[in-house]
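Subject: Interface between my chains keeps coming out wrong

I've been trying for a while to get a sensible model of this assembly. When I model each chain on its own everything looks fine, but I need the whole thing in one frame so I can look at the contacts. Pasting all components below, labels as-is. Any help appreciated, I'm running out of ideas.
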Amino acid sequence: MKESRQKITGADIFFECLRKEKVEYVFGYPGGAVLKLYEKLYDVDFLEHILTRHEQGAIHAAEGYAKATGRVGVVLVTSGPGATNTVTGIADAYMDSIPVVIFTGQVPTKLIGNDAFQEADIMGITRPITKHNFLVRDVKELAETIRKAFFIASTGRPGPVLVDLPKDVINSVCEFEYPEKVEIRGYKPTFIGHQNQIKKAAEMLKKAKRPLLYVGGGVIMSAGTRELALLAKENNLPVTMTLQGLGAFPGTDPLSLGMLGMHGTYWANQAVNSCDLLIALGARFDDRVTGKVESFSTKSYKVHVDVDPTAIDKNVIVDLPIVGDVKHVLAELVSEMDIHPDLQDWWKQINHWRQECPFEIDAHDGKLRTQFVIEKISEKTRGEAVIVSDVGQHQMWIAQHYQFVHPRSHLTSGGLGTMGFSVPASIGAAFGVKDRPIISISGDGGFQMNIQELITAVAYKLPIKFFVINNSFLGMVRQWQELFHAEKYSFTDLSKSNPNFRKVAEAFGLAAFSTDNPKEVEPLLDEAFAINDRPVFIEFKVVKEDMVFPMVPAGASIGDMMTKRLNPKTMV
Amino acid sequence: MKHTISVLVENRFGAFNRVATMFSGRGFNVHSISIGETEDQDISRMTLVTSGDDQIIEQVVKQLNRLIDTIKVVDLTGQPRVERELALITVFYQKGTRPELTNICDIFRGKIVDINNRTLTLEITGPPDKIDAVINVVTQYGIKEIARSGTVALKRGEQSKIQPKIFTTKEKDKVS
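Reply #2:
Try treating it as a single job with all components included. I did that and got this:
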């Protein structure tokens, strides 16, 4: 006779599932609808729960952990406001294809739809911003649903999956069985790229006179950086990267042209518009990359490798689509390349562009500038730190001036552009990565959007370096106001309303410093890197008026870059 | 150009909503959506009529496929298919116009399914352009209200070539 299994509660099943998924950390915040889960959590020893100070902090931390490690980030929050507070982070994870699973508490099933206390239709709210979401209506479906959630989040093009857990489901009991395999008939991501298409791409590459690799975050997600390096180096190919692609190929390598697009390098954008073969790898032809679509790389034959079929022909029509895992396709491509193209003339042209319009850090007036700070951080860390940037000018300067050498080193909110991402995301990264320094860099605006999470870093004694680039302005908005909005600095001047950041950080318990002197930057960085038992804060007070150049104005062709201010202003 | 797209989805809470949300979120046109159960109780069939250029339709199909709850997506446009819509049209009548309306109804092979002292309700089935034609004709009598089901469609079955039957003498005898 078959032995009947013991019945356990939904809460027990929940943690058994997390154990099976080998979850190390859960980022969360307790509340009424998830009390039973937190009751069990009290005795759980195979994973650590990280208490943030706001649910938005929890989801960004999970994103940071996932981006830094490639593993699934896990979030646990309560119903209603707990759930809705994660919405920005879920949208962020969806745009940047980050694998996270969000567990939200929900009111008991019989109260759903009754405007019960702390009820929100989180399924309806998150449907357009999740890869998929589930409402578990019966405890018997719980284990399989969790298995599916992790499977969907981490395979194909990764993304956020939300699982809504009504209180009564968590409290009910049933037998536990974790399915070894899941079959979802509507979800079968293509992994192997089409052989003939790959052969065709290789033939094009062998004949190309001016080829260019356009590398996006997909190369990092598929762990294809080694194959990318092989392809580029064996064939002497120029490589340009998107914001999310930075780190996929070492920025220090002479084959790297740096970032392309709106604030990309002049030479990368010129190469895009002059190449005869553009191979897009795990990139999605975002509008910040293409500029005016009609004039984007018009002379090139375009190959597009992506795991997501919807990315193909969405913004730019390509000549040769290859749907599949980028790492796999790259490996095939490398093995197909028995003849290497002769690219001497092409490199001569690229190097000419490099000299024509290099980055300029202007004014030797002794004032502190962001680019200088970023370059010093890059030198001190030899490009090996995990840099978690926020959104705005400093983000673009990091992309331009920090020489990333490893994948999963540049964590930033690219698609959604979420201010307040950096502080909590760096906390998640610090749990995932222990052998490299974690540096959070924010502007003075974004820093205040999730400033409460500083205490989380202090509580867990995380040796994160929190750097704030303070120009007392919402700098990127200010830049657009100066260039395109008649210099009406509408609500972007924070100079009279910023707090004393150093004192705030000190009050949270961080070692805190502040400087506006370029000469103090290196000694302060040394001091910061010497402190490893708690987080450190440094405020860099920089000039207000600096703008990020070069720049492609919105809607312009990426060939038409503004390389410097047209009417140099007197610096205040 | 209008496209008729047939989508098999999991017969599950929220599946319809996912499709509708995707259409509105991505700004695709929807002329009609209909949904109903199929021979398999776990699967529903949605029939969508949408429009756009080739690039947009390609995106529509891909985005539909991308949803986890969709099992199969077929663009029926340009394929042999059977397409039907049902409409209920309530029209005002006067003393003299009732025979005219019943006559119109007959011509379009419709049915009169309800009547009171002021209005009658026509039930019309057919391809959407036939429904349009009926509505156009009865407009002059005064339409009270219309309910249309939206298009449902199926691909026609493969037609195998049928051999003409050659009768043997014996069979011929039987027939006669």
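Reply #3:
Confirming on my end. The beta strands of chain B are 2-10, 32-37, 43-51, 70-75, 81-92, 111-115, 119-126, 143-148, 152-155.
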